[in-house]
Amino acid sequence: MKKIATRLTFNQFFGAIILAVIVIYSGVATTVQIFRGFNETKKAREDYQRVVSNLLIKSLQAPLIQGSYVEAKLRANSSFDIPQVACVEISTKERPIATCDKPIPASSEMFEVSEKVYFDEAKSQLAGDVRIVFDNSDIYKAVQAKIAAAIALNLVLALVVLVVLYYAGRVITGQLRTILDECSADGDQKIRTRKGLVISEFEFLRQQMATHMAAARGNAETRAAGEIARQVKHDIRSPLAALNMLVKSIGTISEDRRAELFTAIQRINDIANDLTQKRLDFSRGQLKPVEEFPSNLRPENVAELVTELVAEKELRFKDRSGVYFDFNVDLDGDAVFANVCSAKFKRSLSNVLDNSVEAISASGCVSVKVSQTNDSVLVSVIDTGSGIPPELIPKLGEKGMTFNKNGGTGLGLYYAVKTLSEFQGNLTVNSDGISGTSVLFEIPKCRVPDSILAAKPI
Fold first, then answer.
1. What is the pTM of this model?
2. I need a labelling partner for 405 at 20 to 30 A (CA). Which of 15, 190, 245, 281 fits?
């Protein structure tokens, strides 16, 4: 016996799941409907047959009491003209008067009515026993025919839907794979554009990614831009991982998934736009920064920024079944604002969340909480991972310093500390080296923007 394949393409897996769901759901719904109609028909038939049997027994009562057994047999034989009557048996103490031509097997398709006939109203003297058997097999045959037709119809419907979804899956995965291939391709390697149906949002994403990646590759040719390129690769990993999860799980685009996709696109745009805030000048064959624009700080709703990022991480780490996020906002119902650059804040928190998930080897929890003090807004990230030795914690904010992370660049916490410093805030790391790590963002609060206050109802 051949071993069942354990590796399936997205289209094969997606098609199999959809086919199974449609067949099961449609089959169960149709079967329930058919059997409900069958039970109603069977009940109506049996009620009718009870009425017929009562009338027939009453017609046999007189000849049995009078001893006219020939008349009783003639009346019993005439009852076969009634539809569904399969057998009429009449017996007395002395002998049987009417019997079935052949034995009637016990079956759910047969409906039987038996009654005793007495000489007196007190029912003290038995005149005879009457047994009438009705054949209702036609109802069961009709049900079997309906079930067979329903199965055939449901299979045809499932195949039609499967073909449509399979084609949609090919279109979506093809465009997403083109985007990912362009991101990972070398500068001189050309990716063949996919022909056929094109979804405008994905085409926009492809063009934006192509533009930003081309700019990153151009900067990578210089020694100073090499660090920026590494930073882009580090920061862009999370939204790209979210796109990878979409490749694995998306079938049709819902509004929620569309919003998640645009969030990932916006993060990529924010990361790329941040690169344009620095200008470099050649001096004696060497590159040096001559001007650095200040960070674009403005009042931002911190809880909203954290909520968007946690949603992205839940999508990215969807395949880590043992890891889950516990998100809580404790702000007493009021929005809390801080002067931050949303792109840099998300990038810093994204690096911390990635580190927390990667510190969990099998299963565990990453708790994210937004709270406030009188002067500050607090964002805490606590994981149940392996922890960090306390003696290494003071060094984690240093550039290039990493711990227990394969392929780590040591840039995540370095840029987080640097970014929090720009926001006039602090980043604190605590761990006992055994039971996980906690990271605390503390950022000064600012007044609520006038536009937000004006929008509040009085």
1. 0.43
2. 245
